[in-house]
Model the fold of this input.
Amino acid sequence: MATITIHDVAREAGVSIATVSKAVNGKGKMRPATRAHVHRVAERLGFRPNDLALSLHRRRSYTVGLLSNDIYGRFALPILGGVEAALAARRTSVFLCNAADDPETEGRHLASLLRKRVDGLVFTARRTDSFFPAERTTPPIPVVHVNLEPRLDGPALLADDRAGARLGTAHLAALERKRIAHVSGPQGFAAVRLRQAGFEDALQEAGLEGAGALFGEWSEGWGWEAVARLYQDVPPGKRPDAIFCGSDQIARGVVDALCHRGLAVPVDVAIVGFDNWEVLAAATRPPLTTVDPCLEALGVLAGETLMSMIDGAIEPSGARLVPCQLMVRASCGTPRATA
Amino acid sequence: MATITIHDVAREAGVSIATVSKAVNGKGKMRPATRAHVHRVAERLGFRPNDLALSLHRRRSYTVGLLSNDIYGRFALPILGGVEAALAARRTSVFLCNAADDPETEGRHLASLLRKRVDGLVFTARRTDSFFPAERTTPPIPVVHVNLEPRLDGPALLADDRAGARLGTAHLAALERKRIAHVSGPQGFAAVRLRQAGFEDALQEAGLEGAGALFGEWSEGWGWEAVARLYQDVPPGKRPDAIFCGSDQIARGVVDALCHRGLAVPVDVAIVGFDNWEVLAAATRPPLTTVDPCLEALGVLAGETLMSMIDGAIEPSGARLVPCQLMVRASCGTPRATA
DNA sequence: CTGAAAGCGCTTACAG
DNA sequence: CTGAAAGCGCTTACAG
Done:
């Protein structure tokens, strides 16, 4: 049962392959009867045009490559979903490649994508400051980075961590919290440093002092531990009345620890997280108010940008920051006093 | 800057395209000097063979399609990762398609994959009992289902929910727990019914009665609520001393609620979850002992099975159950008495 | 209105 | 040892 080709249809319909091609694609002019007849035969035979041949001819594959060092990670995922949605809407398929932080795998994937003649490339990563060794030489096709600092020509869409952190912290200040602390992940991460900067921006704008900043891990355990450090041996008057957390995981650990110490959220301490990771944020007691980096929207934007570049548009290279949004739930309460 | 082809290399090297082809692919016999020379020219020109042409010739694309109604969901993901790993190891790329529960999108994707001449297909879904309308007609290429009941010819690899639940419940019985309850998700899910059956299998084998089974949602909130129902107005002697949960989310809600009521885990009540969803299970206090469906391994197995079918092996159609494993952490403690 | 021919970029017997 | 030719499955001017 060899797969059937345009020649089979032509023979069966008693016409030339050129006619079949035009009929099937609804192109050119021809007698309606001929067109209908060819259609019928093609249908009966189950003719399915070979896109490989088409692409070879067109020099365009309607396919793009997606390379990540952490495709299956929970943060790369919403991005990936957004990118895919944008591409699917433009009828183009995506080749998934997981580099897994191995330079050799990465190089192989990139070479393979280029040989498959993808129309464009998108790079994503677990961290914005990830490094892709394969990105030494600019590929001959459009490239866009998503939540990854660009090392190649082409635009890079990034969540605005700094502005997001400022937004979250300002929310706390607006609610009349006076002693706001910051608990975040490892300072080796660019995201941690940017969020810290945003935290300080907001403090300064509100004319507040800040009740300390602690850096540890991206985990609930660290949030729990940080609370101990923040409250142990600290006289009640000097304790934070709000904590801006660098991630929802940390925030959840913080909330649980606070509750464990008999402190009430948000009455005694207001909490803001970061990520809007639904499954954690919504399940926390009380549900977490948190900064949403809008990863999926970021992915959509990136996909659309890539498509327009493929269509010939010329997009400026370099980072492009996309705003975060504040997702308000219940961990901050309402203002203690109205100004 | 047109992309350079085999003809460019041939002209530049002063040989025929046939020679370039053989040289570049290390095939046939030829003077080492010629081969080296061609290699050098190809390298200098940055020649990158066009896989589209190659595939057209070979009638094999070294590409497979992956269709899911929930690619970016947290359960489809480990599976996807496993499949991709197995395929990458065989040098084949994967086309990602997200059907998003929309029959039309799904049909479009399937048609597109077939036209792209993928060598095989894998179907995955959010639920094992999902239905893909597009699966009415068997495609002319190998297909495998992963964690999805098969409606097409071809093997289906499924986590053995029933045996897994039995394993988890038996663990509780072996630890001398006598009044084991079950709290799970919506009974509309095949997985819920299978896990319930496994729960009962184990009870029967241990000669135990069972302390009730409650079905609700897949959420922490439901776990919390279920505890209220299980303990409210129930005389201490009739309360469960162990709970087998249908998911880690539920288990976490259960643990938190128990703690909130002043009950200690595992001393007063032992808990077993299902999923081994690391981020939840490890962060629970105490960390959750849970049934691991080994999704990634399932994906790997599926990928390998598909590849071997593509290579001509003939695999029996129908469901194939893959065992779950018990991940022991701290929520069950040690035996109260040694037999 | 329809078809013959050239071409997309490669590989593979088959000659020489 | 090397090259000319046919073929993979399609499309698109160009004739007729």
